[in-house]
Every structure is written in C-alpha cells, then in structure tokens.
C-alpha cells in the first residue's frame, strides 16, 4: 500500500517540514527507477529472444568463439563486474557521509565503464576490419544491435555516475541515506547484470 508524505506542520513551531514522498518504504525516485529498469529489461529480453530465434532458424550460424574475441571480452566483463563492487563501496561511503571517498569511488566506477566502452570500440573496429559488418549476415547484424544497445546504456551510466560524483563532491546527494547515489547504483547494477546475460548468450553459447 502506498504512502505519500506531503508537507506537514511541526507540532511545536507550526513551521512546515518537507519530506520526500514515499511508496511504502521506498522513495518515489527509487520506485521510478525500478519501473524504468523493468521496462528496459523487457526490451533487452525481446532483443535476446529475437537473437535466439534467428540463431535457431539458421543452420549456418557460426560458432561465436570462432569469430569473436572471447578472452578479450572476458576481461571487459571482469572489469564491468568489478565496477559493481566499487559502486557498492561508493554507496557505503555516501551513507556514512564521507563525500570525498564517495565521489572517489563513483569516479572509479565510471572509469570501469569507460574501460568497457573503449574495449567495445576496439572490438568493433577489429571485427569490421575482418569483414564482420551489419550487412554481412544475421549473426553480425543481431550482434551489433544487442551489444551496441547495451553499450548505449553503459555510456549513459558513465555520464550518470560522473554527474553524481560531481554532485557528491560538492556536498550534495548525501541526504536521506544517500538516496540519489543509491538510485544511481540501481541503474549501474542493472547495466552490469544485463551484460552478463548478453555475454553468456551472444559470446559463450
């Protein structure tokens, strides 16, 4: 059952106290992010299902390991997973009110995302030089659609992290249990989780 908290007068002074609207125990910002992530997960699910249908209907589908650089992408994946850990550390420091360390770990998390994006650019350029282009078949077409869509999310996440880190460094976003930082973390953890699924289905299987 939802609970909306509006501005209420303080009993002793009559002053107005503003509290953030909530939905149960969660802030509206957090609920909004969860709704967005659920709808976004459906989009990724549709892309992966389409990829599976295309693959199942094509007997000439190449083995991904024979075309894609699995080891290189595994390193990218490891760094992205580690960035989820640094996000947890950043949130912990934010909740403790340490703006300097929270901003530092948010920046480190963004650095992990930048490393992943640079790796993806390198991977794309290498594959394109090898003739693995959008018009060359269903596998490359579906590969680029799925991975670039995720890459766009990583880019968005990096920008989100840097904006959050800048705000935290200026002493913002630490109120209400660092709610803003936690919402940023929800998006970043989602991006990491989706990549694990993409890496498994597109690169490994």
Commentary on this structure:
The chain has helices at residues 28-56, 64-67, 70-95, 99-129, 138-169, 175-204, and strands spanning 8-9, 16-17, 22-23, 26-27. With 205 residues, it is mainly alpha-helical. The protein has one domain (42-204): Up-down Bundle (Four Helix Bundle (Hemerythrin (Met), subunit A)), CATH 1.20.120.80. The strands form two sheets. It has a two-stranded antiparallel ribbon. Strands 3-4 form a two-stranded antiparallel ribbon. The radius of gyration is 21 Å and the shape is elongated.
CATH third-tier fold name: Four Helix Bundle (Hemerythrin (Met), subunit A)
Radius of gyration (CA) equals 21 Å
Helix content: over 70%
Largest sheet, spatial ordering of strands: 1-2
Low-confidence stretches: 1-19
Annotated CATH homologous superfamily: Cytochrome c oxidase, subunit III, four-helix bundle
Q: Which of globular, elongated, flat, extended, rod-shaped describes the shape?
A: elongated
Detail the topology: elements first, then pairings.
Layout: E1 8-9, E2 16-17, E3 22-23, E4 26-27, H1 28-56, H2 64-67, H3 70-95, H4 99-129, H5 138-169, H6 175-204
Antiparallel strand pairs: 1-2, 3-4
Helix pairs in contact: 1-5, 1-6, 3-4, 3-6, 4-5, 5-6
Features:
205 residues, mainly alpha, Four Helix Bundle (Hemerythrin (Met), subunit A), two-stranded antiparallel ribbon, 6 helices, 4 strands, 4% strand
What's this model, at a glance?
This protein has 205 residues and is mainly alpha-helical. It has one domain: Up-down Bundle (Four Helix Bundle (Hemerythrin (Met), subunit A)). 74% of the residues lie in helices and 4% in strands.
């Amino acid at each position: 059952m939802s609970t909306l908290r509006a501005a209420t007068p303080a009993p002793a002074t009559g002053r107005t106290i503003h509290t953030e609207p909530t939905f149960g125990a969660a802030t509206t910002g957090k609920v909004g992010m969860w709704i967005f992530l659920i709808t976004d997960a459906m989009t990724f699910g549709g892309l992966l299902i389409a990829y599976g249908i295309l693959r199942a209907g094509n007997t000439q589908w190449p083995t991904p390991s024979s075309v894609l650089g699995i080891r290189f992408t595994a390193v990218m994946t490891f760094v992205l997973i580690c960035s989820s850990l640094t996000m947890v550390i950043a949130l912990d420091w934010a909740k403790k009110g340490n703006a300097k360390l929270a901003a530092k770990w948010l920046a480190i998390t963004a650095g992990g995302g930048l490393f992943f994006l640079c790796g993806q650019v390198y991977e794309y350029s290498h594959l394109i030089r090898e003739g693995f282009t959008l018009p060359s078949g269903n596998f490359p077409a579906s590969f680029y659609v799925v991975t670039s869509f995720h890459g766009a999310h990583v880019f968005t996440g990096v920008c989100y992290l840097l904006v959050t880190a800048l705000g935290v460094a200026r002493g913002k976003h630490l109120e209400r249990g660092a709610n803003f930082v936690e919402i940023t973390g929800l998006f970043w953890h989602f991006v990491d989780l989706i990549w694990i699924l993409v890496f498994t289905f597109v690169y490994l299987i």
